[in-house]
Write a structure and sequence with these properties.
The complex is a heterotrimer of chains A (about 375), B (about 375) and C (about 250). In chain A, strands 2-1-3-4 form a 4-stranded mixed sheet. With about 375 residues, chain A is of the alpha/beta class. Chain A has 2 domains: about 230 residues, no CATH class; about 100 residues, abc type-2 transporter like domain (abc type-2 transporter like fold), CATH 3.40.1710. Chain A has 15 helices and 5 strands. In chain B, about 65% of the residues lie in helices and about 10% in strands. In chain B, strands 2-1-3-4 form a 4-stranded mixed sheet, sandwiched between helices. Classes of the chains: A alpha/beta (about 375), B alpha/beta (about 375), C alpha/beta (about 250). Strand 4 of chain A pairs parallel with strand 5 of chain B.
Chain lengths: ~375, ~375, ~250
């Protein structure tokens, strides 16, 4: 056991002696969670609207005022009809509202239908599909007869009443940051020893290989726990995420996830021979699938069946799902047991495969 | 002298057992798989309707919801609490409550309002579901009023979705994926390469030679510039062959922007490497910025929805300009003249970063 | 003295914070000498050498190498010197030929000249069969010989060798020193740091650094006489005992 502890000490010294790396590892999640928690939102706001009105009358002026007053829309000015395409192409506006020449007269007398031409045309820049769809919706509501507008439904979101995107993104960012940081740290630290040849020195020592690996994990696990603590505190007290469920459940789930991430790093270290390769796998190759398939930004239930199946092997998917339930919906731990067991099984599998490969190499 | 350095960089790259294969396979995988992921277009939203009105209006609304592909009508009850339970247990995504006297109130000055409650945990589904339902409700009301001759007929408002008439979300995402590829490969690879030379000590041997820091940095930049070119070409070809998506604007405009952008990213990678003494430090710093680049420059979520301080930050993120160019050229056929501002910004970043990259590379301590 | 010394150092110091790694050292090296730069680990040898090669700026004092000022003309010095560090630093993933071509090209040798010198070099090292082998697969002794040959490929006036024979077997060390003698015979000046005191005996002159200062300077025979010792090893032990600084 003494040998084991001295290994733990050695690994801890590696980390502490490189204060820059340690500082980055500790501060990065904090900065990211704050930045992303406050900044990112999937909601569509401030759709830029330009207006084409050959003869702007009183009604049109009122509509323009309403566009200017809406938080969803931003009025960018009147443009001539010949400039529509240029304005949209250059990105100066997301939508152009084109009023017919006789718009005022038509709205004054709704019964009159002089020709088949529409009274208003909404030309949307559909290259950004979300903005186009939402913007058209907002404009349509705004343009519809105010009589009908009065009956617009009240909306509210359960669990996330202000529609704060932090609620949505905090679990996602946690799922992303933990796995990447842990996998990078572990895989690089092990592969570096392979590269510099110190691994062989360790392996000829009387300490068993399994213990050496475990000793490497402990300091990184501790470091990750500090990250976890800082993120949870920030989420609760700075981002006002409710944490209505059991904090113990959240912590337990996260600890399992950290263990999984370390195991993943270990696994990567058995297939990579150089630090560069290890990093390309743990940082570059994992980043895009994690963002796309974890359900962090794109809802999994919208994906085609095959991709839903693929997303099942992304650990972050299960973790994010569980954390959303625990942190925001406040469900009891019993409701995330399936996520828990899947993550536990993944961890066990990764450790098993990694150790087998590790031992194979020794022989 | 540059020639031998280039030869060295290319030989090293090609001889690496892993890198060349990754530079080819990774873009192919990303382009084949991820465009399918990205449907923001939410369908089959589970709706529970609490109908306390039971009039023609409410029945019309319910039948509309039932008929639409966007919704799956879960239940129609008069028990609001029960419906909320369904929402909480995720059996329904959205609850629409139609109050008693809804129809009657429509013609009065103070109408009774319907309410929509959504599960906000899955923000995408919740907010889109609310939005859709709101629109359906309004459209139905307008339709009913038009039938009674009270309001302008709905066809007086015509929506034209220019550049992407079917609102195909994939068309929006494909340029975004190309950008992600160039951000990750263009930034990480040069940083890793350079700091690896530091760690193995080969750079010290170079430092005692008359090689200028400019040509040493340049040799690396050229390699990653060419890799960026290959990756982009591959991605463009796949977008065309697999998804039938070709740039509406000039391919030259896309290449120009991409080549500037790769230069920006590799220059940035070299700066990071110059300030790092170990691979781990370099990768963490790169990783930090790459996450910000991907999540904050308008790639996946709109910049316009960010708070104003965050919007200010985005002006300092080079991908912001590249994303604008890629989307405008790819889908809208914008030209260099439309986007001169974004090109100028990218060129400025490229110049600043690469000058800094050459200057911060210190041969002497 | 028939000519200007090729290396001339006056009161040269390097401090890192409070720590004085090199403390006012002064010495000259004449053309064609094999100058042994001795000292225990941490005595400041490598730091001093890095200043001479233009890899590090001096804190105070002055020096010239091949007539160029070490503080201001580092890049010019680099055209006239060769350097081999204690860490093997050729590219492992390039072949013997490719490494030679790279460094030849860096020093601006023409393609024909590189080929000619490469052929001669491979002949001398008896490396012909290995010319297309990746350097990473060569045994350490071979690598060191190759590194030395690459460092002298452009016929520099001075070659700096930082513990070139660390970890190499005695036979290869012997061969390595033959290469050094050959280079010296052709008029190259060699500046060598080493731990091996038997190697010190091969040098024309040696200096011994203790705690950042030069404590002894002269031909090995002179030094042995002055300290009344039979071998350089004894001389070194006598001086190193005074060291206060440990690693």
């Amino acid at each position: 056991m003494g040998g084991f502890l001295s290994f733990v000490k050695k690994e801890t010294l590696h980390i502490v002696r490189d204060p820059r790396t340690m500082l980055i590892a500790l501060l990065m999640p904090v900065v990211q969670i704050l930045l992303f928690g406050f900044a990112i939102s999937t909601e569509v706001n401030n759709v830029n609207v330009a207006v084409v009105a050959p003869r702007p009358g009183e009604t049109i002026r009122q509509i323009v005022m309403r566009i200017g007053a809406s938080s969803y829309l931003t009025f960018k000015g009147f443009i001539p009809a010949s400039d529509i395409d240029r304005t949209l192409r250059a990105g100066d506006a997301d939508a152009v509202v084109v009023f017919a020449d006789d718009y005022d007269r038509r709205t004054a007398d709704p019964a009159s239908k002089p020709d088949g031409k529409p009274a208003v045309q909404l030309i949307m820049d559909a290259s950004n599909t979300n903005t186009a769809a939402a913007g058209a919706g907002y404009l349509r509501q705004l343009l519809t007869n105010p009589e009908a507008f009065k009956a617009a439904p009240e909306t509210r979101l359960l669990f996330n009443p202000q529609m704060k995107s932090a609620y949505n993104f905090v679990p996602g960012i946690m799922g992303l940051i933990f796995i990447l940081i842990c996998a990078i740290l572990t895989s690089v630290s092990i592969v570096r020893e392979k590269e510099t040849g110190t691994m062989e020195v360790l392996l000829v020592s009387p300490v068993r290989p399994l213990r050496i690996i475990l000793a490497k994990m402990i300091p990184y696990f501790t470091l990750s726990c500090l990250n976890l603590a800082s993120i949870l505190l920030l989420a609760r007290y700075v981002l006002d995420v409710p944490m209505s469920g059991s904090v113990a459940g959240i912590v337990g789930m996260s600890l399992l996830y950290l263990a999984l991430a370390l195991a993943l790093g270990l696994f990567i270290s058995t297939i990579a021979d150089t630090q560069v390769t290890a990093l390309i796998i743990s940082a570059i190759l994992m980043l895009i699938p994690l963002i796309m398939l974890s359900g962090m930004v794109f809802p999994i239930e919208n994906m085609p069946g095959i991709l839903q199946a693929v997303s099942c092997i992304i650990p972050a998917r299960w973790y994010i799902d569980a954390i959303r339930k625990l942190m925001i919906e406040g469900l009891p731990f019993a409701d995330v047991l399936d996520d828990f067991f899947i993550l536990a099984a993944m961890t066990a599998a990764l450790i098993g495969v990694a150790l087998k490969k590790f031992n194979d190499k020794l022989e | 002298m540059l020639r031998v350095l280039l030869e060295k960089e290319f030989l090293q790259f090609l001889r690496n057992p892993f890198l060349p294969r990754m530079a080819l396979i990774f873009p192919v995988m990303v382009m084949l798989v991820f465009p399918w992921v990205t449907t923001m277009d939410v369908r089959h939203i589970g709706v529970a309707v609490v109908d306390n009105d039971r009039t023609e209006t409410s029945r019309r609304l319910i039948s509309k919801i039932g008929a639409s592909d966007y919704y799956t009508l879960q239940e129609v009850t008069d028990d609001f609490a029960g419906a909320l339970d369904a929402l909480e247990s995720c059996a329904a995504d959205v609850v629409l409550e139609i109050p008693d006297g809804f129809e009657e109130g429509l013609s009065s000055d103070n109408p009774k309002k319907a309410s929509i409650s959504a599960n906000g945990v899955n923000a995408t589904k919740g907010s889109l579901g609310t939005q859709y339902l709101q629109q359906t409700l309004m459209a139905t009301l307008v339709e009913l009023q038009a039938e009674r001759g009270a309001a302008p007929a709905p066809e007086t408002i015509v929506v034209q979705n220019r550049y992407n008439p079917t609102l195909e979300y994939r068309n929006y995402m494909i340029p975004a994926l190309m950008i992600m590829l160039l951000i990750t490969l263009g930034g990480f690879l040069p940083a890793l390469n350079l700091v690896n030379e530091k760690e193995t000590g080969t750079i010290e041997q170079i430092n005692v030679t008359p090689v200028s820091r400019l040509s040493f940095t340049l040799a690396k930049l050229v390699l990653y510039w060419i890799i960026g070119f290959v990756v982009l070409t591959l991605a463009l070809l796949l977008a065309w062959i697999v998804y039938g998506l070709v740039p509406v604007g000039a391919a030259g405009a896309i290449y120009l922007a991409s080549m500037l952008f790769v230069l920006v990213m590799s220059g940035f990678g070299v700066i990071v490497a110059n300030y790092s003494s170990t691979i781990l430090q370099a990768i963490f710093v790169m990783f930090f910025f790459v996450m910000i680049f991907i999540l904050m420059s308008g790639l996946l979520t709109p910049i316009a929805s960010m708070p104003s301080w965050a919007q200010c930050i985005t002006y300092f993120l080079p991908p912001r300009y590249f994303i604008e160019i890629m989307r405008a050229v790819y889908l809208k056929g914008a030209t260099l003249r439309d986007l001169w501002y974004d090109y100028a910004a990218l060129a400025l970043f490229a110049a600043v970063f690469n000058t800094a990259a050459a200057l911060t590379y210190k041969k002497q301590l | 003295m028939e000519s200007e010394p090729i290396i001339r150092v006056r009161e040269l110091s390097k401090r890192f914070g409070d720590f004085t790694a090199v403390d006012r050292i002064t010495f000259d090296v004449a053309r064609g000498e094999i100058f042994g730069f001795l000292g225990a680990n941490g005595a400041g040898k490598t730091t001093a050498m890095r200043m001479l090669c233009g890899l590090s700026y001096p804190t105070s004092g002055s020096g010239t190498v091949a007539g160029f000022d070490i503080a201001r003309e580092g890049e010019l010095i680099k055209r006239h010197i060769g350097y081999m560090s204690q860490r093997f630093s050729l590219y492992d993933d390039l072949t013997v030929m490719e490494n030679i071509r790279l460094y030849g090209g860096i020093y601006g040798l023409s393609r024909r000249e590189i080929l000619r010198r490469t052929a001669a070099l491979l002949e001398r090292l008896d490396f012909r069969a290995e010319r297309h082998t990746r350097v990473g697969r060569l045994p350490l002794g071979w690598k060191q010989k190759l590194a030395f040959s690459v460092a002298t490929l452009h016929r520099p006036e001075v070659v700096f060798l930082d513990e070139p024979t660390g970890g190499v077997d005695p036979v290869t060390r012997r061969q390595f020193w033959e290469l050094i003698y050959e280079a010296a015979a052709e008029g190259t000046t060699l500046f060598v740091t080493t731990h091996y005191m038997d190697e010190a005996e091969y040098c024309s002159r040696v200096s011994i650094m203790v705690d950042g200062q030069i404590r002894a300077l002269g031909a090995p025979a002179e030094l042995k006489r002055h300290y009344g010792a039979r071998t350089m090893d004894e001389v070194f032990r006598m001086l190193a005992r005074e060291a206060k600084r440990t690693e």
